[in-house]
Amino acid sequence: MNDTIFALATARGRAGVAVIRISGPRAPESGERLAGPLPAPRQTALRVLRRADGEAIDQALVLRFAAGASFTGEEVVELQTHGSTAVVAAILRELSEQPGLRMAEPGEFTRRAFENGQMDLAQVEGLADLIEAETERQREQALRVLSGALGERAEAWRADLLRAAALLEAVIDFADEEVPEDVSDEVATLVTRCETSLAAEIAGTRAAERVRDGFEVAIVGAPNVGKSTLLNALARREAALTSEIAGTTRDVIEVRMDLEGLPVTLVDTAGLRETEDLVERLGVERARERAEQADLRVFLVLPGEAPGLPPRDGDIVVQAKGDLHGEGVSGRTGQGIDTLVSDIVGVLEQRVSGTSVATRERHRAAMQRASSFLAEARGKLDDGPDAYDICAEELRGAIRALESLTGRIDVESVLGEIFASFCIGK
Ligand SMILES: Nc1nc2c(ncn2[C@@H]2O[C@H](COP(=O)(O)OP(=O)(O)OP(=O)(O)O)[C@@H](O)[C@H]2O)c(=O)[nH]1
Ligand SMILES: [Mg+2]
C-alpha cells in the first residue's frame, strides 16, 4: 500500500490563497487531526486548523475526495489556507510530524494518478505541457492532449490492428480444417487505413512540437542594417546593444515572445560579411548556423543590396531603415512593425494548421515504429496464407509500439523522465 504524501500545490511565496494537498490512505485521518470532522466527499467546510497541542494555525476551507474519485485516485484532502509563507510552513511542519506521512516528490501526485489509471501517459504529458503553457496555442494544444485525444486515436488504431491480427490467427488456427474464407482483403484494408492515419499524425508532429517548444525566427542581414534595433522594437525592450558601428552584434541574442498566441524565440545575430576581425568572424559563423536552423528568417535588406544568404520558401525579405526610404520596416520609428508581425504569424500559422494530437518526439518515434511494422506486415500479406503467422507477428509489433504511446507497456524507461519535469505538489 502507498504511503500518504503531502505538498503545497500552489506556487511558493505570498499569495491570497495556498492549497495544500494530502493523498493516500491516511489522508482523511490526517485531515481530521488538523481540522476536526471532515466534510462529505466533494463538499467544503470552513474549519480552524490546529496544531496537535490545540493552538490555532489558520482558518481554512477543507475539501475531501474519496478514493476512486480524486485526482490521484486515492483518498485526498485539500486545505485552502491563507497564502502566507508562515501559515504554509506551520501546516507542512505539522503534517510532517504526523505518523506515516511524508512530503511528496516532484510529480508524485500525477504519478499516482497514472498508476491508478486516472490518466494515461500521453495525458500526463499533456498535463505537464499545460502547466508549462505560456501562450494560447500552447494552452489549446496541451488541453487537447490532456483530454485524451492521443489515447483515443491510439485506441482506434489498436482496435483495427487487433482485429486484423485476429483474422489472420483464425486462418492459422483452422488451417487443417475446411478452407477458410479469404481474409487478406479485410486485413489489407485495416492495415492501410491505419498506415494512412499514422502518416498524417506523424506529419503533424513536427509542427505540434514547435508549438510546445516555440518557433525560432532569425533576423538576418548585413552589418548595420538595423537588425538589433528591429529586435528591440519587436521585443519592446533594449534586449540588444545597437550602435552606428558596423559589427556591433557578435553573440546570438534571443528573446522569447508571444506572437498572437504562438511561442516565438526571436534571434538577433551578427551582420553577415567577410571580415578580418577574428571575434566578429566567429559571430558571423554563428549567425549563419542559427539562420540555417531557424524555422523562419526575416531578411533585412537595404535597397539595391543582396540578402547575404539565399532566402528559403516562406522566408520574409523586408527593406531595412524604411523611414529613410519610404517603404519597408523601421525599428527606429516603428513603421511596418505591425505588418511584419502579422506576416511572421501568417507564415507560422500555416505551418501549425496541420498539427496532430501527437506532440512529442517520443510520440513520433512510437508511431514510426508502428508504421514500419505495418509496412512489413503488408509485404508479408502478399505472400499468401503461408506467411500469415509472420504477418500477424508484425501486427503485434505495431500494436506494442502503439501501446507505448499511452503507457500500457514499456513505460519504466520514460516514467522517470516525464515525472521529473513536474514541480513538487503536482
Ligand atoms: N534611420 C534609421 N536608422 C536605423 C534604423 N534601425 C537602426 N538604425 C541605426 O542604424 C545603426 C545600426 O543599427 P543596429 O540595430 O545596431 O544594426 P545591426 O544590423 O544590428 O548591426 P550589426 O549588429 O553591426 O550587424 C544604428 O545607428 C541605428 O540607430 C532604422 O530603422 N532607421
Ligand atoms: Mg546588431
From TrEMBL:
Gene designation per UniProt: mnmE
Main location: cytoplasm
A UniProt-annotated Pfam family: TrmE_N
GO BP annotations, alphabetical order: tRNA methylation; tRNA wobble uridine modification
Cofactor annotation comment: Binds 1 potassium ion per subunit.
E.C. number(s) listed in UniProt: 3.6.-.-
Gene3D superfamilies on file: P-loop containing nucleotide triphosphate hydrolases, Probable tRNA modification gtpase trme, domain 1, tRNA modification GTPase MnmE domain 2
Cited CDD domains: trmE, TrmE_N
Keywords assigned: Cytoplasm, GTP-binding, Hydrolase, Magnesium, Metal-binding, Nucleotide-binding, Potassium, tRNA processing
GO cellular component: cytoplasm
Summary of the function given for this chain in its UniProt record: Exhibits a very high intrinsic GTPase hydrolysis rate. Involved in the addition of a carboxymethylaminomethyl (cmnm) group at the wobble position (U34) of certain tRNAs, forming tRNA-cmnm(5)s(2)U34.
Cofactor: K(+)
Coiled-coil intervals: none
NCBIfam families named in the record: PRK05291.1-3, small_GTP
Binding site for K(+): 224, 243, 245, 248
Lineage: Bacteria, Pseudomonadati, Pseudomonadota, Alphaproteobacteria, Rhodobacterales
Name the UniProt record assigns to this protein: tRNA modification GTPase MnmE
Family from the record: Belongs to the TRAFAC class TrmE-Era-EngA-EngB-Septin-like GTPase superfamily. TrmE GTPase family.
